[in-house]
Design brief:
- It is built from 36 helices and no strands.
- With about 625 residues, it is an all-alpha fold.
- Helix 24 packs antiparallel against helix 25 and helix 30 runs antiparallel to helix 31.
Length: about 625
């Protein structure tokens, strides 16, 4: 659903003129130089010999060698003026132009050289230029020609292997790097490239073995650490990835990709502080990559640095304004900061850019949900499901919305679908259980709540799940079970006053008054509504047969809310027990007129609370 960032290739194109390869350069270059010196004056011959010596020693593609390359180009131009058919001068000039990054000009010179005479240097120089220009088929053909002239040449074989790798011909790439390893068993980069190729062919064990060999040969090979780290990242071995990326960074501290992917690894482990540090360092090195700002924005979102998150997404959007997912992620940060209208504007913009963006519809629906605009939420969530019917989150959110709209049966169907798509997410079971309580399926609700706890016993919602089990058991007349589960909720989270109030209630209804007043007092300390604590205290005294105090507490509760059914019915039953039949019936009639404020669910418990033998309906008729 969200776009993925492509895996990096950490190995750059190694210079064909690497001085560490001195011994690999075949001395047959001398013979060709001598053959190309006919019809030249002494100065031109000197220039050719100097260039040949420089290339033999190794001319790296490095800024420090630019003056040398420029000098060679100047000298070879002089030679060409003296002899326009000097193939070697064109070849050397092509190689020098490659050092300066002038690939197209190098191809032109190498081609001119080959038109005069087939020679290794021209094929090699042109192949190198093609590789730089991502023309791997042409590069491979030229390196093959170079190898026909100089069999088992290290440099041509090396670059041919790289071109095979870049063109995703991994088996042929492995063959070439295996040949390189035979030519030079201590060339660690050959093991790295072969490992990369093996990884692409899903030979993970072989790849990891080659990375280990490369590191053993050269403990400072940062490309080996980087590449191995990325494989560990793909295998979700994020700790191992961090270890290897850190070693690579120790070797080369200016590689933004190393910091970025170490940041991604930290991000996956939920270590957002260190992830933010890594993404920030990647941005310092390379401030022109929008993905770095994108991921730092995501990290700041989880750190609840919402202002910083929006700023990072602003920057990423500025660099890549056509990415609708960036706009949606910015909307998420705004939503979390309760800027719902701005968030909805971002989600709408994302939808405008990509009408098939189910994720944007989903996020927009959630923003409407948080604003309690359930009708708008339902429309957008249904659209998300229409586009992508296989995302469990969409059904979960629509199920919650339908709960708020009291469409309980349809809500349960959505949670059923969410569970079918994702049977391991406890929240789907939690909410389906909650929906089932509204249709009186308490056994089904308890089963769902227990499954939620089984899936994730350490979930932050666990205390409330136990509380919901307690409520469902209470409505099934399993009052001991209700007390048991609400006590579990209190053990897990003793900061919620409703838990203590609930335990007091279920104890009272079964006649167990031990600790009830302590629970009521604790609920009061935690800020539970006084009105309902007065009501339940009245219930405590009623069950304790202290009907005078019971009536007084119910009357205090009525002072706070004269329209509450349970307060009035408590006064009626207390008066009945005190023998005040006339007053009892007047209170009962008032209670019946207020019944709609409470509902049938709670009313079903009234006879059990006040006693089945008392029938005020009949007594007061």
């Amino acid at each position: 659903m969200k776009p993925l960032i492509l895996a990096p290739i950490f190995i750059g194109i190694l210079s064909p003129f690497n001085s560490s390869l001195e011994a690999q350069i075949n001395s047959s270059i001398f013979n060709e130089v001598y053959l190309a010196q006919e019809n030249l004056n002494e100065k031109a011959r000197k220039y050719l010999n100097e260039a040949e010596i420089i290339f033999k020693k190794g001319l790296n593609v490095e800024e420090s060698n630019f003056p040398v390359a420029k000098k060679i180009i100047k000298n070879m131009t002089y030679v060409i003026k003296k002899d326009q058919n000097n193939f070697q001068a064109y070849s050397f000039r092509a190689r020098a132009k490659n050092v300066l990054g002038k690939s197209e000009e190098a191809i032109s010179d190498a081609t001119k050289s080959l038109m005069i005479k087939e020679n290794y240097d021209a094929y090699y120089a042109r192949g190198f230029s093609y590789q730089i220009l991502y023309k791997d088929i042409e590069a491979i053909n030229d390196f093959k020609k170079a190898l026909e002239i100089k069999h088992d040449d290290f440099n041509a074989t090396l670059l041919k292997g790289k071109s095979f790798f870049y063109s995703k011909r991994f088996k042929e790439s492995i063959n070439d790097f295996t040949r390189i390893i035979k030519l030079n068993p201590n060339y660690s980069d050959a093991f790295v490239f072969r490992a990369q190729s093996k990884n692409k062919l899903m030979n993970i064990a072989g790849a990891m073995d080659d990375f280990a060999k490369a590191i053993k040969i050269n403990p400072a090979n940062y490309a080996a650490y980087n590449s191995r780290a990325y494989i560990k990242y793909e295998q979700k071995n994020f700790k191992g990835a961090i270890e290897d990326f850190s070693k690579a960074i120790d070797i080369f501290q200016e590689n933004d990709l190393s910091y970025y992917w170490r940041g991604r690894s930290n991000f996956e482990l939920g270590d957002y502080e260190n992830a933010k540090i890594d993404f920030s360092r990647a941005i310092e090195i390379n401030p022109d990559d929008f993905t770095y700002f994108d991921y730092r924005g995501r990290t700041r979102y989880f750190l609840r640095d919402l202002k910083g998150s929006v700023e990072d997404f602003d920057k990423a959007i500025e660099m890549n304004p056509k990415d609708s997912y960036l706009i949606s992620r910015r909307g998420l940060s705004k939503e979390l900061n309760n800027n719902f209208n701005e968030a909805i504007a971002d989600f709408s913009k994302a939808i405008e850019m990509n009408p098939k963006d189910s994720w944007a519809y989903y996020l927009k629906g959630d923003s409407f949900y948080y604003q309690k605009k359930y009708g708008d939420a339902l429309v957008n969530l249904s659209k998300a499901i229409q586009i992508d019917p296989n995302d469990s989150s969409y059904y979960y959110s629509r199920g919650k919305t339908k709960l708020e709209l009291a469409d309980y049966e349809s809500s349960i169907l959505d949670f059923d679908k969410a569970i079918n798509l994702n049977p391991n997410n406890e929240r789907n079971f939690n909410y389906r259980g909650y929906a089932k309580t509204f249709i009186g399926d308490y056994k089904g609700a308890i089963k769902d709540y227990l499954k939620a706890i089984e899936l994730n016993p350490d979930a932050s919602s666990s205390p409330y799940t136990n509380f919901n089990i307690a409520e469902a058991k209470g409505y099934l007349s399993d009052y001991k079970g209700a007390v048991k589960y609400v006590s579990k909720a209190i053990e897990e989270y003793p900061e919620d006053g409703s838990f203590f109030r609930s335990r007091a209630y279920w104890k009272i209804i079964q006649g167990d008054l031990k600790g009830v007043l302590d629970d009521i007092n604790e609920a009061e300390k935690l800020g539970f509504e006084k009105e309902y604590l007065l009501d339940i205290t009245g219930g405590y005294f009623y069950v304790a047969k202290n009907f005078i105090d019971a009536k007084n507490y119910y009357l205090k509760a009525l002072e706070l809310n004269p329209k509450q059914y349970t307060h009035q019915i408590g006064v009626a039953y207390s008066d009945y027990k005190l023998g005040n039949i006339k007053e009892s019936c007047e209170s009962f009639k008032k209670a019946r007129s207020l019944k709609e404020n409470y509902g049938n669910q709670g009313d079903s418990l009234i006879p059990k609370f006040f006693g089945n033998k008392i029938n005020l309906e009949k007594s007061c008729s």
